Amino acid sequence: MADLAREVRSKNAGPFWVTMEVFLRDAGGYRVAADETFLNERVIAGLYRVDEGSVRIFRIPSLNVVKISFPRPVGQGSVRDRDMHAGQHHVPLARLVVPAGRSTGPGGTP
User: Is residue 65 part of a domain?
Assistant: First the structure.
């Protein structure tokens, strides 16, 4: 996914939620990332070990952005919190492999 994106980031959305944003380089990359057969609640639930029903995905075509939110595994600042600001949660999403055959269009990657 990182190859399609200008930036992939994560942050707190309050003490009990994480939000991740994928800023795609262009409309072609957005089409790949926004495709519900590629990136959906089931995929995010598997990557982050959260309940599929709790995942929220917002696709914003006018900005070439996909935004994803889900409950934090533990509350922010709790004894078991390993990432106080949720700043590292984006890594599994950024490393998500785009399946062969998905095209961003002329001149794009992959």
Answer: yes
Could you give the CA distance from residue 30 to residue 45 in angstroms, rounded to a whole number? 21
Residue 37 in any domain: the answer is yes
Order of all β-strands in the sheet with 56-60: 5-12, 17-24, 65-71, 56-60
Going from the C-alpha of 47 to that of each of 50, 51, 84, 90, the distances in angstroms are 8, 11, 19, 10
pLDDT tens string 42-82: 999 999 999 999 999 999 999 999 999 999 888 788 888 77
Domain holding 90, by residue range, is: 5-76+85-94
Q: Is the pLDDT score of 84 beyond 60? A: yes
Q: What does the pLDDT read at residue 42?
A: 97
